[in-house]
Design brief:
CATH class of the largest domain: Alpha Beta
Distance between the termini: 36 Å
Number of strands: 19
Largest sheet: 7 strands, mixed
Radius of gyration: 21 Å
Number of helices: 8
Number of domains: 3
Structural class: alpha+beta
Length: about 350
Amino acid sequence: MIAGKRALENGPCFFYGNHSNRWDPFVLNCFTPWADPTGGVMTQEFFRRPFLRWALSRFDLHPTRKRIADPHLIRVLHRMVADGRKIVIYPEGGSRWTGRPEPWIESTAKLFTRMGIPVYPVVTRGSYTTWPRWATYPRPGRVEVEILEPLSFSRNTPLDEAIRQLRAPIQFDENVAPEHLRPRWAYRPADGIHRLLYRDPVTGKHGGLGTPDGTYVQNEEGSLRLKMLPDSRLLDETTGEVHLTGDLYEKIRDMPLSKDPSGRLLENNVECHVELDFPHLVSHGDMTARLFDDSIQLNGATTRSIPLADLHGFDVERNFKLQLFLAAEMVQLSFVREGSALAWRDALARLGNASPDTA
């Protein structure tokens, strides 16, 4: 269901909103005229396959690296405005992990205030509960999209005031969905929960939570056992208490970082790729990745050390690929068989190196 569809007939303008599901921009375009869909920017991950790259470019969609400045895109957006296009941008830089607001990319707010065109907030409800970013499988459910009245800014609008106005319509917790939007059934709803809840909230052990059957989430000691409901809430069947995944994630995210005697913070087996020239990823095979206070050590067929001081930025692509941006290359670590890319992202942010909310 979508409200405020008349805005989809006007241009040029910006659309922005909360983003918790990879299909959010496509849902919005279901209601645009076929000959005049929205354009905008998308993470460059979608542009690696030749056919998809060709198809997306036909819709005036352009690749960008997450949280890395790209002056070329500013010129592209100016051209799109001149052409009267409707442009979709998600200012949190990616989909929400927990259904809760993420830090904003300030440069996006600057863009909204300086282009001199209407900026429409888009409120999407039910997106997180139908397919959380961390989850392996979607849940059958309903999504509502509402296009609000446009915001207007001048070049003299202070940035903090612009961000306050822009954030207000989408500053809500998607864990708490209206009853009529909650999925009633889900296939193995807990599959993938290790990507989000990467530590045992009781003991703090990394990888200490798992799901033996895709429905129950439990720790290795047996002191915690929760049933995942179709809408991703977690039920303690002993006490009747209902937990939100967002609350548990924030608890484990804020736990102190722990080291082993060698100073190692994290260790996982990963698939490693290196990109010198987009979109050409070169496989370096399976490697053991270890995180220390000052570096990432990679050991496999070859050995490599990446000083954290050399990172220009980092973020997670999809829900299992950690991308490390260096001066002349991008190193991608894929957590396919074990571990959590989010755990590494959070640890890197806490170490104070190119935090993803400022990179």
